[in-house]
Structures are given as C-alpha cells and as structure tokens.
C-alpha cells in the first residue's frame, strides 16, 4: 500500500463515519458539525486528486458559508420543544425498504457503467484542477453556463428577499 | 507493504521543526501583544501601565497566562457541555493554522540543504487563508450558542453576521490585487513585489478596504460589537472561565498578528527590504534571509501598532452603521475598484 | 503511480504533496489545544455551587433560556452571504487568467457584475439590509 492509498482509505472511512453521525446525532448542531467533517474529508479527496481549487472552494462555500447558514437556521428554530413526534414502526420499515432499494439501484448502476470501470482516477497528477487551467476552461469554453449562473444567483436573491421580507 | 523508505524524512523533519517554531513564535508574539496593548493604552492615556512583574512589567503576560491555568473551570448547568468546550478550541485552532502559507523570508542554507522558510507554498495560498478565516466564525457561534445565555447568543449572532459580511468585501477587494499579480501563491506575490514595486502603490483603495475588513474579522475596535460590554455584559464568551476564556482572548491576538502578516505580504512587499536590491546581494546568503525576516517582523509590528492605535482612538460603531458600512459601502467600492483596475490594465496593455 | 509521500522530495509546485505540511500543522495545533484544555481542567480548583453554575444574567433571575427563535434579519444576512460568496469565488479564476483572457474575458465578467449589481440594488431597494425597522 502506498501512502496515497492509506490516505484514501482513511479519508473515505472518515467521510462515511461522519456522514452516519450526521444522521444519528440527536442534537441538530452536532449534525451540522459532523457535516463539516464530511466536507473536510471530501476536500482531502480533492487534494489527493490534485483538484486544489475545488478542494478549497468546497471548504469556503460549503463548510464556511452554507453550514453557517444551517447553524443560523437551527438557532432560529425553537429547540425547547424538540420532542420529535414518534413515527410508527410501519413508516420506519417502509423507509428502510425504500432506502435499500435506492442503494441497490445505485450499486447496480455503478457496476454496469462501462466508462467508470475503464477509467482510473489520476492521483497527484494532471493539472486541470489548478486554478489557472480551470479559469481558462471556464471563461473560454463554458461562458454561457457561467453567465447563466449569474441569472440563477439573481433569482435566488429575489427568492430570499421575498421569503425573508414578507410583510 | 508500505514504502516508507521513499519518504524524504529530512524534509519532513525540517517542516516539523518549522511548524513548531512558527506556531510557538506566533503564540509568544500574541502574548507580548497583550503587553504592548496595555503599554500603548497607558501611553495614550498618560498612564504608566503594567510595571510590577519583572523589569518594565515584561513578565506580565506570563503572569496573566499562568493565572488563567489556575482559575476554576466553570461549565454552566444549562449549557451543552461538548459544544461549550469545542467553541474556544475551534477559535484557537483556526487562529493557529493560518500561518501555514505565509512566507516568512527567503530560502536559507543549513548543513548544505536549502530550507524554505514557508511551511507550505501552495498554489492557492491566499484562498487557504480565506477558507480558514471563514471557518473562524464557528468558534464564536458555537461558543455563544452552547452557553445557553441570552447575552452570549445575541453576541454570537451579531459576531457571526459581522464576520461573514466583512468576508465578502475582503474577498472582493483582493481580486484587484490578484489581477496584477496573476497568482494566488503568497511566495510569488512577494517575489513579484521584490522585483518591482509594492502593491500598495497600485492598489491603495484595495488596501484600505482589506485593512478595514481585517479589523472587523479580528473583532477589533471600532468593530468589536460582539464584545460590546455596555450592551451585552461581555459578549459571546460571557460564561467562559479559565483557559477557555483565555483561548478566546488569545485567538484574537494571534489573529491580529497573522492578519498583519498577510496585509504586509499582500501590499507591503512581505520580507522585501526597502531600497535594497536583494538579487544583487545574493552572496550575503543566510544573513540576507535573516535581514528579510527582521524587516518583515518590523512591518508586522507597525501594523499591530496601527491596530492598537485605532482601538484607543476610534469609538465603537452602532450595529446598523457596521452593517451599512460592510454591505452598502465596502462591497460596491471593492467591486468598482476591481472593474476600474481591470479596464485600466487592459487599456494600458492594449 | 507514484506514492504520495515520494513526491515530497521532488520540488514541483502545484501538486498534492504541498499539503502534507498543512496537515501536520493542523494535527500539531489540535494537539496543543487539547493539551491546554486538559491541563486547565486538571490544574484549576473545583468548588462548584448551584448558584455558580447558573447562567449569568446581570444578577437578575433569568427567565427561560436562550433556545428561542430569533430575528429573521440574521437569517437573511446569512443567505445573502452564501449567494455573494459563491459569486466572489467566480472572480478568483478570472483574476488569475485576467491578462491572457483580455477584453473578451473582461466583457464576460462585466456582464456577470451587471447581474450581480442588479441583484444587489434589488436587495437594497427592498430594504433587506435595513437594520432598523
């Protein structure tokens, strides 16, 4: 095993464990913190793939901005009467079955996808993930999606203000 | 089988020593910043300041720090225990890891090896700083919320809103600088400034916006709303005692040191020695690197003094004024600066 | 495929091995923080009384606790921050390639900034950032 592989397995295990903890935690603030750990381990994966810009943006946007928003939302809620209504066991069973079915679909889809089987992840090599090259591609080949995203932002701003400023 | 033999152990050891030195030095500097703050405050208010512990009161920070270790640790009954401990730990942790990308000086030669005085010269250097700064908000929020005290909660929300608001203007103001440097690596930014002029000459407006935001990010006066004692008793760390309180207070001083270092790196040439052509004196070897380091520290010292000078000169903003300044003034100003810089550079290059 | 740590001794800028020292620093800082936390826990005296462990409310008896809904203004600031933050991030790859993209890239970004400003002016006109009602 090389050091890259050790790191890969460590980060994968960390990501899965923290993702589980997000679901298991009773306290919503704990869930948010575990989710931040998930983002950190995913950023670690990005760095292994030499996608440095993506790794750091993942931290800035997800861990640094969206999770702050989540914390604000949790603090806005009234957590005193946090007695979650007990769902009956039939609903729980239905949830488990649906979850397992979804997992089966995903696994079989991945297994049958020839492209994924044939391709191998490039560790440490390749420099498309560096900010210079990413910028060139974004501003030369993907100009239209880039401009469209600004319209998307505009609509999101309008939405936020309309919801937040309801008279 | 693990190929441990392929590891460059010497490089790893070198980095480890550098990390220990940098982290410990930033802690010691932060300690003496508290002393400097008190002495400067005393000077400005025509007092004497601490003068009992050791000569000139120089041992005062040690006494203050040592005292905090021996104070009773109080965790209020209604608080969330784990988060209560996590809050100050996160605040301190984020303060301690920002220094990783700062180039302290040029390369030195030790025992035939070329040693870089930068922990990690990463491709996205300045974005790493932003990532860590954006994580700094958790220390405030978690600490304030877990205390389960209304004053703390209010202060934490204020603090978090303030920090995230000024992060935007900070990020935008830098774009204009990066348009000139064309790189995010802090080492390259310094080397470019050594070869030509300091960035402050090209981007004075960006510097003013950046420095204002740095004040707000460090919760320094006039932006110390999260600690506004006249309205909020003490702020988000109201329920804290012992070294947990110490961490919150200490993190502020470490942040002040690091943000001064970043301001110097981006706008004032980093370890560049003014009026000296470093390339012509390469034969000075390690002495040149040492002189650069001293120069860097002196520049940082000036900015730390500026932080303190502002604190004892400018009164605190009202909260609506603070939000207005961040959103309605600094963001449009930074955006305009970016567009004008871009147009001017393109027009000059044709 | 090269091993991760092997790359440490080849001085190439812009590969993942650059991040190893950052990882070490994070571990070192976390260790330091944990040590100090444990030390202060062990060193301090422990004389707990019921009143001491109550939340401080300036000497007045506290009513309820701090787990209450709060003003929506903070939420609005946070959601606008997320949107603006993502837009600011888009400028970084542009700034790095600014000179090679020339006027063509500049017009693109100008258009982006126009949309950004439209949203910004809308927010201000709607009073979403007005702190005093």
UniProtKB/TrEMBL annotation, chain A:
Membrane topology: Multi-pass membrane protein
Transmembrane helix in keyword set: yes
Chief place of localization: membrane
InterPro entries in UniProt: NADH_UbQ/plastoQ_OxRdtase_su6, Nuo/plastoQ_OxRdtase_6_NuoJ
Enzyme class: translocase
Molecular-function annotations in GO: NADH dehydrogenase (ubiquinone) activity; quinone binding
Enzyme Commission (EC) number: 7.1.1.-
Subcellular location per the Swiss-Prot or TrEMBL entry: Cell membrane
Membrane-spanning ranges: 6-24, 31-49, 55-77, 89-110, 142-163
Catalytic activity: a quinone + NADH + 5 H(+)(in) = a quinol + NAD(+) + 4 H(+)(out)
Keyword field: Cell membrane, Membrane, NAD, Quinone, Transmembrane, Transmembrane helix
Cellular component GO terms, alphabetical: plasma membrane
Function: NDH-1 shuttles electrons from NADH, via FMN and iron-sulfur (Fe-S) centers, to quinones in the respiratory chain. Couples the redox reaction to proton translocation (for every two electrons transferred, four hydrogen ions are translocated across the cytoplasmic membrane), and thus conserves the redox energy in a proton gradient.
Family: Belongs to the complex I subunit 6 family.
PANTHER family the record matches: NADH-UBIQUINONE OXIDOREDUCTASE CHAIN 6 (PTHR33269:SF17)
Protein name, entry field: NADH-quinone oxidoreductase subunit J
Species per Swiss-Prot/TrEMBL record: Parafilimonas terrae
Automatic annotation (TrEMBL), chain B:
Top EC class, one word: translocase
Protein family according to the UniProt entry: Belongs to the complex I subunit 1 family.
Protein name in the entry: NADH-quinone oxidoreductase subunit H
EC number: 7.1.1.-
Record text on subunit structure and interactions: NDH-1 is composed of 14 different subunits. Subunits NuoA, H, J, K, L, M, N constitute the membrane sector of the complex.
Keywords noted in UniProt: Cell membrane, Membrane, NAD, Quinone, Translocase, Transmembrane, Transmembrane helix, Ubiquinone
Alphabetical GO biological process terms: aerobic respiration
Any one GO CC term of the record: plasma membrane
Annotated Pfam families: NADHdh
Organism: Parafilimonas terrae
Gene this protein is translated from: nuoH
HAMAP family attached to this UniProt entry: NDH1_NuoH
Catalyzed reactions: a quinone + NADH + 5 H(+)(in) = a quinol + NAD(+) + 4 H(+)(out)
Topological category with respect to the lipid bilayer: Multi-pass membrane protein
Automatic annotation (TrEMBL), chain C:
InterPro entries named among the record's database cross-references: NAD(P)H_OxRDtase_bac/plastid, NADH_UbQ/plastoQ_OxRdtase_su3, NDAH_ubi_oxred_su3_sf
Transmembrane feature ranges: 20-43, 74-95, 101-124
Key words of the record: Cell membrane, Membrane, NAD, Quinone, Translocase, Transmembrane, Transmembrane helix, Transport
Membrane topology: Multi-pass membrane protein
GO cellular component: NADH dehydrogenase complex; plasma membrane
Xref: Gene3D superfamilies: NADH:ubiquinone/plastoquinone oxidoreductase, chain 3
Top-level taxon in the UniProt lineage: Bacteria
Assembly notes: NDH-1 is composed of 14 different subunits. Subunits NuoA, H, J, K, L, M, N constitute the membrane sector of the complex.
The protein's name in its UniProt record: NADH-quinone oxidoreductase subunit A
